Amino acid sequence: MAKKLYDEISNEELKALTGAIKSRYDIDFTNYETKSLKRGFARLISKNGMETLLDLWGKVLRDREFLIGCIDDLTVNLTELFRNPDFWVKLHDEVVEDVKSKHRTLNMWHAGCSTGEEVYSMAVVLEDKGMLHRTKTWATDLSSTALAKAIEGRYPATLVTKYEKGLIKYLPHKSMDDMFKFEDKHMKVKDKYKKHIDFHQHNLVQDKVDRKFHIVFCRNVMIYFDEYLKMQVLKLIYDSLEDDGYLILGYYDMFSNEAKKLFKVYDAKTRIYQKIGSAS
Ligand SMILES: C[S@@+](CC[C@H](N)C(=O)[O-])C[C@H]1O[C@@H](n2cnc3c(N)ncnc32)[C@H](O)[C@@H]1O
After folding, report:
1. Measured in angstroms, how far is the CA atom of residue 111 from the centroid of ligand 1?
2. Alpha carbons 195 and 132: distance in angstroms, whole number
3. Are 246 and 272 in contact (CB under 8 A)?
4. How many whole angstroms from 77 Cα to the centroid of ligand 1?
5. Which residue, by CA, sits nearest to atom 26 of ligand 1?
6. What values do phi and psi take at 86, rounded to 5?
7. Ligand 1 centroid from CA 72, angstroms
8. For residues 91 and 76, what is the distance between their CA atoms, to the nearest angstrom?
9. CA angle at residue 270 from 269 to 276, to 5 degrees?
10. Residue 41 CA, ligand 1 centroid: distance in Å
11. Residues in contact with 199: Cβ distance below 8 Å, sequence separation at least 6, in sequence order
12. How far is CA 33 from CA 222, 231, 242, in A?
């Protein structure tokens, strides 16, 4: 059903609907990657028991709350604790070590943090490096429902074995009990890992950033953007990074030749880049 719906949505319809959403609500999906956006709209049509994009169209443009509730289906919130352990090892042993040797305090931005797992994975690294109390973290996402879950920091306990395997690959002396309080079917992030974090709704496509960071995470967010939008967001991140600041991308994020003028590769395998300073 969803596949058929996907095939039925034309590029023109997609363009018209995203244009209408933008002018009605000032929420801009116009340069999201076509295939993933069509999949998102097809998911929404089927989830809401509708038949065509036209049915969804009417509802979306009449009902702002409905549209806000649709954002998660349009953007995909998938995330995990300790995803890609090799990356966390590199971050722990080299990147945080480097920033720590140069700066007393560390400013971080997790752009597109979804439900917070990545932000809390970083908090464990910072604690292990003795930097947690010296770090300010700004964690942002477009989706207010994802952010509400991130602030709560409460995850299903069924995932504990999977997550623990990731954790002990890079911090073998840590256990999930250090990080979480276990309650019935859930595990809740301990408060000490939350104090340095400011979760905030922010749209990477439209909103400004008025501060500077030593490290910016933007993992698995730009995979949903077209080339034009990716470059816009990379420029925003470039301007918000301190000279020599680090940019962390996801393993499937693509990097264009134009972007290589802004960032140099620090480690290709783990997708860590560094800002090319204006003086370089
Ligand atoms: C696949 S998740 C990635 C989560 C996390 N960074 C990770 O890699 O585990 C992508 C996130 O990007 C967010 N996102 C999509 N478009 C955005 C935008 N324009 N501004 C801010 N966040 C956006 C989505 O809401 C979603 O939570």
Report:
1. 7
2. 9
3. yes
4. 6
5. 77
6. -55, -40
7. 9
8. 25
9. 95
10. 17
11. 113, 116, 139, 140, 147, 150, 151
12. 9, 13, 29
Ligand 1 nearest-atom number relative to CA 204: 20
| Tokens, residue 205 | 């496509």
The closest alpha carbon to 205, from 79, 112, 72, belongs to 112
- Strand order, beta sheet including 154-156: 154-156, 186-189, 180-183
Ligand 1: which residues within 6 Å by Cβ? Answer: 75-79, 83, 112-114, 118, 141-143, 146, 203-205, 219-221, 224, 250
d(C-alpha 175, C-alpha 68), whole Å? 37
Ligand 1 mean position, distance from CA 10 (Å):
25
DSSP code at position 191: G
Q: What is the pLDDT along the chain (280 residues), one digit of tens a residue?
A: 456 788 889 999 999 999 999 999 989 999 999 998 999 999 999 999 999 999 999 999 999 999 988 998 898 888 999 989 899 999 999 999 999 999 999 999 999 999 999 999 999 999 999 999 999 999 999 999 999 999 999 999 998 988 998 899 889 999 999 999 999 899 999 999 999 999 999 999 999 999 999 999 999 999 889 999 999 999 999 999 999 999 999 998 988 889 999 999 999 999 999 999 864 4
Instruction: State which of 27, 70, 71, 75 you would mutate to test the pocket of ligand 1, scoring each by most atoms of that ligand within 8 A of its C-beta.
Output: 75
Question: Which of 36, 115, 141 is the best mutation target for the ligand 1 pocket, counting ligand atoms within 8 Å of the beta carbon and taking the most?
Answer: 141
Out of 18, 114, 145, mutate this one to test ligand 1's pocket (max ligand atoms within 8 Å of CB): namely 114
277 residue type, one letter: G
